[in-house]
Amino acid sequence: MSTHDPSAYGAAIASRYDELYGEAELETDETVALLHRLAGSGGTILELGVGTGRLALPLASRGHPVTGVEVSSAMVEALKTKPGADRVNIVEGDFSKIRVPGRFRLAAITFNAIFALSSRREQAVCLQNVAASLQNEGCLVIEAYVLRPEQLSPGWCVLPRMVAADHVELQLSHYDHATHRIVRTLVHLREGDTTLTSVSDTYAWPGELDLMAEAAGLRLRSRWAGWSEEQFDATSARHVSVYELNQGHDASA
Prior knowledge:
It is a single chain. 24% of the residues lie in helices and 33% in strands. It has 253 residues and is of the alpha/beta class. It has two domains: 8-146 and 204-245, Vaccinia Virus protein VP39 (Rossmann fold, 3-Layer(aba) Sandwich); 149-200, N-terminal domain of TfIIb, CATH 2.20.25. The chain has a seven-stranded mixed β-sheet with strand order 3-2-1-4-5-11-10, sandwiched between helices. Strand 4 (104-109), helix 6 and strand 5 form a beta-alpha-beta unit. The longest helix is centred in the middle third of the chain and has 14 residues, at 120-133. The mean pLDDT is 93.
């Protein structure tokens, strides 16, 4: 049986991450704007799965004290080479296990990072640690994809994930209903270049994340289909969910 390695994805893709995932495709400006507003002026921010600093760096430049947790040393090294990296407090380690000291106005787990954890238990513990790290008026933001109906069928499913004139990403996925594991191969096609990356996720439906959050002492405040606060409905391919502390619940217990 293979052992889950949470740093494998970063090790495989860190050197090309920024090249493959441009800011426009990931709606970085919209993401930063919403996180900035939710954190409030100068609010402290905890980002779990900070990666190469796509969000942490612009948020720090807006005056937020940012702490970023990242399990991949390759991603951390890529982040450290960027201008402004000295403004980000980088904590290297598995964010399912690390409880960062201090209290934060905002915690963020974006771009499906919550699914990188190897089990429901790790996801639940992660949310418990986040809840214990939030200020009284703080909130947690999770961005994650929602499985489409065709991905629930037996066998492999092929979906275009990103289509541009010079860059296409295809996602080949297989979902195991019994284990909630979804194996994905991400195929990036560009002129004269093909990149393949394998990802293994522990999928959770939005409602399941809500239940884990509730057990951690959090409650759902808002849910959108994107960073521009688009309405979330049954056709949405992803969700951006905002959780706040459930007053009266002792999250530090």
